[in-house]
Specification:
heterodimer, A: mainly alpha, two-stranded antiparallel ribbon, 2 strands, flat, B: 290 residues, 12 helices
Chain lengths: 92, 290
């Protein structure tokens, strides 16, 4: 199968592999260890999957904000995202 | 009730999963790949890193288009939602006139987008259009091809004409589901028309209204065909909304990289707003049931 039209690069491939493996891990967790939704600081019921979604969407915006407003090495945005992710999983 | 632990039904979802992967996920992945590269055609790509994202975030042109887009969505929501509710409240509840009204209301929704654009493009023309010509005869200076305000009014009125029915029909469906007993109780309490609306009709319409607002927001935020047919984004750039600008960039100038970065940011904004709407909707529903 020729996928050259998709113009793959290693960074994007790794990006999608990380997302795909996150989805797989969370699916496995949801089946293996079912949970009840909980109410967090946002006042909405969230499951692990919801918190993953909030984390990923928020991380996208953190990266954009870093790039557009702060500048500097993008790696630091990733650090900010990890802190954000920990906070989301802990408090939301 | 015993909880079922059989997950085999999920396999029935597989066909949809494949379809979505084929029509949405794979193209989206390609857009992500494009967004960090540059191309001069011929399927040859060069690494560009985050350059297109920085460029998009700093671009005056895109900021302006985003501003216009938000203004447009805000205006049409502010008009269509109250107007749709007002129409739904005044539609006959049963009998032949209810059916007639329903069909009349559904008509604009059945017209293809480009045809709506063409209708209004001709309707508003000063030389041959009924609206444009009439306005000129009664002495109103109206020309959507040269005046930005006229162009905006035309595009907004066109959208209201095309889509208010959707809000009205959804609200109507919400109203029809209210049992007669609620109104009788209100009558016994001598509730005013406003109280009936505020405490019976509006809460019962909440669910469908949120769906209507979500649909109208998403549709208006990615509107392309109608304004493109009527004004082509002009005069100047005054009605160039995000998707018109995006198509110009991607297909007109073949700037695939910047256009891809632009699409991803556009997609993220829509995803965020839709998620907020969806969360609010489901939580209101839950609270209502408690």
């Amino acid at each position: 199968m020729d996928l050259s039209w998709m113009a793959w690069t290693w960074p994007t491939a790794i990006f999608f592999m990380v997302i795909a493996s996150l989805l797989l891990v969370f699916t496995f967790l949801a089946i293996r260890f079912p949970e009840t939704p909980r109410n967090g600081v946002l006042g909405i019921e969230t499951t692990r999957g919801d918190r993953l979604f909030i984390t990923l969407l928020g991380s996208a915006f953190i990266n954009l904000a870093w790039l557009g407003l702060i500048g500097g090495p993008q790696w630091w945005a990733l650090v900010a995202c990890l802190i954000y992710a920990a906070a989301v999983f802990r408090y939301v | 009730m015993e909880k079922t632990t059989n997950h085999k039904a999920w396999f029935l979802v597989l066909p949809v999963l494949f379809l979505v992967a084929f029509s949405a996920v794979i193209p989206l992945m390609t857009v992500v790949n494009y967004s960090i590269q540059d191309t001069f055609g011929n399927n040859k790509f060069f690494w560009a890193g985050l350059e297109w994202f920085s460029e998009t975030l700093a671009s005056e042109r895109i900021h302006d288009a985003l501003g216009r887009q938000i203004l447009f969505s805000a205006i049409i929501l502010a008009i269509e939602v109250p107007l749709g509710i007002f129409i739904a409240l005044n539609m006959p509840k049963k009998g032949i006139w209810a059916s007639v009204c329903l069909i009349l209301m559904a008509l604009p929704l059945l017209i293809p987008f480009n045809v709506v654009g063409t209708i209004w493009q001709i309707f508003g023309r000063v030389d041959i259009g009924l609206l444009g010509h009439t306005l000129e005869k009664i002495g109103i200076d109206y020309n959507y091809t040269s005046d930005a305000v006229d162009a905006w009014i035309t595009v907004v009125v066109m959208d209201v004409w095309h889509w208010t029915s959707l809000v009205a029909l959804l609200s109507y469906a919400g109203l029809q589901s209210i049992p007669e007993a609620y109104y009788q109780a209100a009558k016994i309490d001598q509730a005013s028309r406003w109280s009936v609306f505020r405490f019976i009709e509006l809460p019962k319409m909440q669910g469908v209204l949120l769906i209507a607002i979500l649909l109208r927001f998403m549709d208006s935020f990615m509107i392309y065909t109608e304004p493109f047919v009527v004004t082509g984004g002009g005069p100047g750039n005054s009605t160039t909304f995000l998707s018109i600008d995006l198509v110009k960039m991607a297909i007109g100038q073949f700037d695939l990289g910047p256009a891809a970065a632009f699409s991803i940011i556009y997609f993220l904004v829509i995803l965020l707003v839709s998620w907020v709407f969806y969360t609010v909707m489901t939580n209101l529903d839950k609270r209502e049931r408690v």
